[in-house]
């Protein structure tokens, strides 16, 4: 798997939520609405999610392996840091 494009849109407001991101995988699959979040241990990337009727959030799309998650997180955070 290769992340072939990353777009990050910074959010101009205070709080933990800092930006939205869109990634393209292998020039053929797009994942939108990833979020760059400031957590207690630093920045991380949250996967796109929706709110269930009971108030719980569930990921709509997410990596299966820790290696894939790290690849996505690294690519998005590198792009985020280049625009701030």
UniProtKB/TrEMBL annotation:
One of its GO terms (biological process) is division septum assembly. SUPFAM superfamilies: SpoVG-like (SSF160537). It comes from the Bacteria. InterPro entries: SpoVG, SpoVG_sf. Keywords: Cell cycle, Cell division, Septation. Signal peptide: none annotated. PANTHER family: SEPTATION PROTEIN SPOVG-RELATED. NCBIfam families: PRK13259.1. This is Septation protein SpoVG. The lineage of its organism: Bacteria, Bacillati, Bacillota, Clostridia, Halanaerobiales.
């Amino acid at each position: 798997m290769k992340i072939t494009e990353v777009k990050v849109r910074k959010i101009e407001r205070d709080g933990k939520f800092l930006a939205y991101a869109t990634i393209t995988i292998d020039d053929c699959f797009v994942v939108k609405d990833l979020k760059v979040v400031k957590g207690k241990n630093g920045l991380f990337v949250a996967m796109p999610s929706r709110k269930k009727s009971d108030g719980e959030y569930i990921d709509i799309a997410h990596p299966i392996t820790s290696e894939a998650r790290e690849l996505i997180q690294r690519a998005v955070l590198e792009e985020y840091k280049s625009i701030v």
